[in-house]
Amino acid sequence: MVVLKYLFNVLVFPGLLFSALVGLLLSGLDRKVVARMQKRIGPPIIQPIYDFFKLLGKETIVPRAASRRTFLYAPVIGLLALVTVTLFIPIYKYTAISTVADIIVILYLLTIPAVALIMGGAASGSPYAGVGISREMVAIISYELPLVIVLLTIGKHVGMALNKGVITFSLSQIVSYQAEFGPMITNWRLIPAALALLLIIPIKVGSLPFDIAEAEIEICEGPLVEYSGAPLAIFKLNHAIKMFIMTSLFVTLFLSGKGTGILILDIVLQVLLSAVIVVISISTLKAITARLKVEQVLKFFWTYPTALALISLILVWIGR
């Protein structure tokens, strides 16, 4: 029974099937909202699902100069890491796996899809992929610092209340704190950290204006330029799942609470809040902002999100 339960968690809920379906729907919502903001009709919300299965049916072409195994396995490695992350993110009181250091685990696992993208691009042997790889590395350098500071801020704030000032790295404790004292977003000290995370979500997902690695018009999708068929479908699925993971993580860190006490209703509430974050954090920026250059991205994240996260960390630290 324990084995069946873990298989269900990994393959169905909250793992592969659930996160893939919700992620693809959120991706479709993003495209639809951006189209409406630009006074276009836009594709149906379920269009990413159609695109995914269409790509699965296409022929997979491996470049002659490519390292075949790395080229084909890279998207799968990224997918496995993302599915594992979904097991650690609570949906209010429900979580498939809970540890005392799941924030650290999530932080490391969320880096793997970016590394897999770099590996796949490098294995393709394309010069366009090489340009995208260097840009993906710059993106990782730019957003990891403010993301770590945001997580430290939340951990310190909860630790002061529950662990006698010791920073907590447990998402279950963060959820329990909010169930007792209310959502983090209502605490004025944490609002700058919330704003920082809203700015981090688009680049972590790889969306405009921070899609510097793919840059479809400029460098023909960068690391993905040589991908086709099922491997490309998996990379696109990774993008969608990452969108759900990052928005769901925001909900857990800042908007969690007691919930309804009924799992199905809590799931619906989590997905709806994730959809709201997609519109606020990804769609709005995409509709009003042109794509940033590499040096602009690095300067932006080392200035604004980092500053906002540091402000919250200082306010939390001195507010003991």
UniProtKB/TrEMBL annotation:
Membrane-spanning intervals of the chain: 6-29, 71-91, 103-125, 137-155, 185-203, 240-256, 262-285, 297-318
Main location: membrane
UniProt superkingdom: Bacteria
Subcellular location: Membrane
Keywords, sorted A to Z: Membrane, Transmembrane, Transmembrane helix
PROSITE patterns referenced in this protein's UniProt entry, alphabetically: COMPLEX1_ND1_2
Family annotation (InterPro entries): ComplexI_Subunit1, NADH_UbQ_OxRdtase_su1/FPO, NADH_UbQ_OxRdtase_su1_CS
Membrane association type: Multi-pass membrane protein
GO cellular component, one term: plasma membrane
UniProt protein name: Carbon monoxide-induced hydrogenase proton translocating subunit CooK
Organism: Caloramator australicus RC3
Phylogenetic lineage: Bacteria, Bacillati, Bacillota, Clostridia, Eubacteriales
